[in-house]
Design brief:
heterodimer, A: about 120 residues, mainly beta, 6-stranded mixed beta sheet, about 50% strand, globular, B: about 110 residues, about 0% helix
């Protein structure tokens, strides 16, 4: 079973601060996805990173995939109250490195972010 | 409107009484998957299906069954529910490989097994 350790589990910050969420594993993933989930709703995909070392930006959010495709980070610049929510990372299996197949998705435990005005 | 529809949204049942949670998507997606979400554990994949008649186990398949007889439907079956299956369940679908496509989630089914 692949494991994906996400940290921190809780993050409470003031508006305007920067933050970083980490997802780490000893397993190689074929892709890694970041989701945001609001209470009472299903997760919504923010971004997918595929290539080792890849960096993607979505406005104030920057996503990075580790060179070895075992870890990823989400950095938010100048956080706003609207960024409040549950952030989830998820790694897709890599059949040629670890034995799990495409389509098998492992989620991190999630980070509950609260941004205070 | 493109969507993943789960039914029911809320269900309270008793131990041992078979139940089915339905999932349907109208986007002609090949990939479908079931997850359960529990506090402190995040989402855990139960089963997934890459296409019709193809299903594979996720990380927590024990106590669950699925079928994929047609592309649009992917029901989750609990033959003999137990209290440890009390959870929030999500169905999701994607056009093809997750690396290149968006996975869309349903609104969730909150199940309580007494």
């Amino acid at each position: 079973t692949q494991l994906l350790e996400q940290s921190p589990q809780f993050l409470s910050i003031q508006e305007g601060e920067n933050l970083t969420v980490y997802c780490n594993s000893s397993s190689v993933f074929s892709s890694l996805q970041w989701y945001r989930q609001e209470p009472g709703e299903g997760p919504v995909l923010l971004v997918t990173v595929v290539t080792g070392g890849e960096v993607k930006k979505l406005k104030r959010l920057t996503f990075q995939f580790g060179d070895a495709r075992k870890d990823s980070s989400l950095h938010i610049t100048a956080a706003q109250p609207g960024d409040t929510g549950l952030y989830l990372c998820a790694g897709e299996g890599h059949p040629h490195a670890g034995g799990t197949s495409y389509g098998k998705l492992t989620f991190g435990q999630g980070t509950i972010l609260t941004v205070h005005p | 409107e493109a969507q993943v529809t789960q039914n029911p949204r809320y269900l309270i049942t008793v131990t041992g009484k078979k139940l089915t949670v339905t999932c349907s998507q109208n986007m002609n997606h090949e990939y479908m998957s079931w997850y359960r979400q529990d506090p402190g554990l995040g989402l855990r994949q139960i089963y997934y299906s890459m296409n019709v008649e193809v299903t594979d186990k996720g990380d927590v398949p024990e106590g669950y069954k699925v079928s994929r007889k047609e592309k649009r439907n992917f029901p989750l079956i609990l033959e003999s529910p137990s209290p440890n299956q009390t959870s929030l369940y999500f169905c999701a679908s994607s056009f093809d490989t997750l690396a290149k496509n968006i996975q869309y989630f349903g609104a969730g089914t909150r199940l309580s097994v007494l």
